[in-house]
Queue: 2 jobs
Job 1
Amino acid sequence: MTIKAVVYGVGAMNSIATRLLLDKGVEIVGAISRSESKVGNDLGEVTGIGRSLDVVISNDPHEVFERTRPDVAVIAVNSYMTDAVEQLRACAEHGVNAVTLSEEALYPWQTSPEITRELDEIAKRTGATLTGTGHQDTYWVNIVALMMGTAHRIDSVTGHASWNVDDYGPEVAGDQQVGKTVEEFDEWLASAERPPTFGRNVLDALVADTGLTVKSVTTNTRPDIAETSMFSQALQREILPGQVIGFTDIDEIVTTEGPVFNFEMSGRVYGAGDGDINEWEIKGEPDLVLSNGTVPTQVTTCTQLVNRVPDVIAAPAGFVTVEKLPRLRYRTFPLHTYLGR
Ligand SMILES: NC(=O)c1ccc[n+]([C@@H]2O[C@H](COP(=O)([O-])OP(=O)(O)OC[C@H]3O[C@@H](n4cnc5c(N)ncnc54)[C@H](OP(=O)(O)O)[C@@H]3O)[C@@H](O)[C@H]2O)c1
């Protein structure tokens, strides 16, 4: 029996994921978006598949879930739990498993404990699993955790990563403050509304995986500034010299047991010659280094979103974070075959 999926959010990421899901034998039974330009249209046309999929995009998740009773919702809508709770709650209440790209959902237990507990309780009651994945899943958490498993003693774990804001849609560019003045950026940074950094959730997941305890957490953020005029594809407008093109977070977690975790992550509009990096260094016995060269983050985000589908359906009910899922595997065959269907 094939896996029935609802595509939740029809933007840059889920347009790619729609094609990957179809390639892997998933039956797309519904789609949900927000804007007038998408709602009422066919998913195949809006995502550029080039043919009708007989799936009309709706703006009513409850109606879609009631009517289609999917195995899973594949969510690419927003980044932070205060926003993502709307989509995740709708899934959990309907007993629909959900795999989301919301960055904070990667490990939200420390940064949004109340929302996560609430979702966990609903999901356990209805039998749904909720999981945050994306590029971080393997490249920033599980590949690093595997390498940590080859050490005898760890003093520090230090990561450097960058990604191009223009590989994603306007939601991401807005979150990265692209086009703001430095004064507006500083105001946002100082405001109580500044959401958790993506790096914080990555380090929380790594620390959780090792069973270490957090002693202190620090975050420093600096804006990345356009030196010359740059065009942002995501916003479809020119960013002037002196304006913000994104920012870099440097997160640090010191653990009670000693190991220190650092992650410097930059998400900005790229200029000529920029490319995505993913580099990690473990100091201890022995010293270890990982470098992935130039990483195609846009694609690896969507492949992991899709390849995780069988793991999320098979996982126990509740809010289950990726360090608790099985190692991610290449999916040669249609996804339902990994569930023994
Ligand atoms: N974890 C990762 O590795 C990773 C990587 C890439 C992106 N992301 C995150 O994934 C999210 C989506 O990225 P993207 O590049 O696909 O962004 P995008 O192109 O802006 O797409 C977002 C989509 O969500 C829809 N949407 C917004 N609010 C909604 C709501 N309340 N109900 C239903 N649909 C809603 C939008 O609908 P309309 O267009 O109809 O308004 C749009 O189709 C971003 O927050 C991004 O940070 C995570």
Job 2
Amino acid sequence: MQDELELMADADARAARYIGSVQTRRVFPDQEALDGLGRFSEDLPKEGRPPAEGLALLDDAGSPATVTSNGPRYFGFVVGAALPAAAAADRLIGAWDQGATLAMTSPVSAKVEEVAAQWILEILDLPRESAVGFGTSATACGITCLAAARRSLLKKHGWNLDEDGLIGAPALKVVVSEKIHIVVLKALRILGFGKKDILLAPVDAFGRVDPARLPVVDDKTIVCLQAGEVNTGEFDPFPEIISTAKAAGAWVHVDGAFGLWARASAPSRHLTEGIELADSWTTDGHKWLNTPYDSAMAICRDADALAEAMNSDAIYASGSKKAQKNLTLEFSRRARGIPVWAALRALGRTGVAELVERHIAQAKRLATELEAAGFEILNRVALNQVLVRASSDQTTNWIRSEVERSGEAWFGGTIWNGRAAFRLSVSSWRTTDDDIGRLIALLIRLQGQARREEVSQ
Ligand SMILES: Cc1ncc(COP(=O)(O)O)c(C=O)c1O
């Protein structure tokens, strides 16, 4: 016992030192840290090694080779840092080591996740009768929502998927935005939809589905829209498309991995207008809500549809429709809803709204000041995404890799309408206005350096 407590105290102390360093440590590791990863290339030991030694190796060789996505100047992939409240709850549930399958295996998990589910519906203002499954990712939750969609549409057509399977079932089609995130296509592929079953809905100049060119939808169609396009942060025009789709009897699913959170703040809520009319939604905690990773939600208006599609009741483990094992892919699972509960409790409605508003304001400042400095901004910045381009593909890519090399900040690159760009996502609770100023100064300095080098060539 004493050894165990000492090991845990050591882990806590190391974690605390790491957290204490995130303001100042390099954002992308340097070559020496990457080379240090060679220390993990050991043979599988025949006899067990002391746990304290493994922990020390993980920290000494591993921590320097992390990307500081838990810090203030990580602008990649729309992933926020972990809020202290959520990270602390995560540590405690790690010690509990509960299988949050159903109330029998963890009464506390069942209770707190039920509260978290209700709070999610309230803060996102989605139909209160919806079921909420706490899954690992928008990818996994997309699979669960789309499985519920498919089963429900087939049921309406008199086909019992559970009994009769897919072979011979009425053919369903799926309409997705041309700019839909790849993980929705992955979810569809896993569920057995081929390319021939998927119709791409053309988008307008902003990357939103154009309602005038929406493929014909009917009562055997699943329509997939998005709240927050991953490059631009744009929203599909929900009111028009959803009312057309619903009138035709289609199922509408919205991928709102990060964009759904725009709904939590009054000034940006209009972006999500009409979204509440959809049938299912996915969103992440580990993006804009700033929970630790492996935190996402599958939200389904028809609670029974999700509970029936995901049911895994067994003689020895049968749960209610609200049991998380009956709303997610996993049977054995950690209580992913608890860090969500902790984040929402610590922030409150006001705190979530402030987080969203601050990031949108910071993104707008980035766009304004970078444009004034001669960068091209390729999107209209309504959310927390800024798509930036320097004078050419080559300079754009060079600046991105120089930022990475500097260790000062990090963001990813992309191709937007055939041209190289970088994607700045503002979503960390740690990012201050000063961090935004530092990023702007760095980009302007590198742009100046690139120009001087072009001139001298
Ligand atoms: C719009 C959108 N959908 C889905 C995803 C995938 O989310 P996850 O990584 O949680 O599966 C992302 C991730 O960037 C995203 O931006």
